[in-house]
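Re: the request from the purification team.
They wanted to know what the chain is likely to look like in 3D before they choose a buffer screen. I agreed to run a prediction and write the result into the notebook, where they can find it.
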Amino acid sequence: MSTKRTVIFTFLMLMALGAGIAAERGNLLVESYGKLMLIGMDGVQRSLAPSIGLAALSPDGRNVAFTQNENPRELQSAQMLSIVPVGGGSARLIGQIPSGSHFESLGWMPDGNAVVFQGKGGHLFIAAIASGSAAPRDLGPWYQGFSVSPDGTKIVHAVNSPDMGLETLDVSSGKRTLIHKSSRIVWRATFSPDGQWIAYEATLRDPPRTKDDDPDCTPPTIGLRLYSIATKSDSAVTITTAPKDWDNVRSYAWSPDSKRLALTLGTTDCDYPGSANGVFIISLDRKSQMKASQGDMAFEPVFSPDGSSVAFVDFSDSPARLFRFDITTGARSLIQRATEENNYYGLLDWR
């Protein structure tokens, strides 16, 4: 009887483990020199579009929205917004902006039925993806980037004029509200998946002045901050285990359960990705911090769909590699290595 229970228990554990692995797998959305690809956890790669500008996976991972020039050989040609099914099929045009304008940011509404983008004149638009839908809804002038709340009722962005801080737009009414005022220049703002927090970037310090005010390519040093919607409090996210000169945040991502953040932290340099970067994971309560990457050139972390792993780009050696880091075990595994011809990855999402 004891042996039978052991066999059943082992079987159930293996089933649970297998289910966890299956849930985690999904696909990585990757860009390489303008080419858009899907890469599975088994390293199998599939091309989605030969030339793109921006791209975003739908919340359910079934479709990809992307932008591209109408004529790839002409930089000033009109730009198109299209949808392509992940499972295969032809791309479908859902919007277009004229020559002289360009798409500045791109994302999805939480229900996956509409795409949000910053386009003509810098305005923010919502475009339904169903065939025969009305023209995109114009939400008015917009600043840098955007993030839609999980319930789809609000959109947030970082603003620096006339005040610096976080501004939300009510999708239904169009009303805008400055919910948090900052004393620093602010950058990309993102809702947590549970809608309780907004992570955003803020300038820690400006580059030093040069003699005779000569031009300096050094950008400002950027830090990461957290704003609590419930308590209206604001605090810094600091990685205490990183080298002292690694204080510049280049990118970040929320875990699906809103309990962790993964970020690229490195030195402040003129070029991207700079001289040194690492991928770190920190819990929201700051009690857990870990370095997911090895070496000094890793960036662009994204969480797996179940939150158990983080994928990132490693460019310690050329060509670039995609790695997976298991948060529980600390194990790192290679997903795929780029080719010598296309030796660089831009990691966009994991769904």
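For the purification team: The longest helix spans residues 2-25.
Please add any questions underneath this entry.
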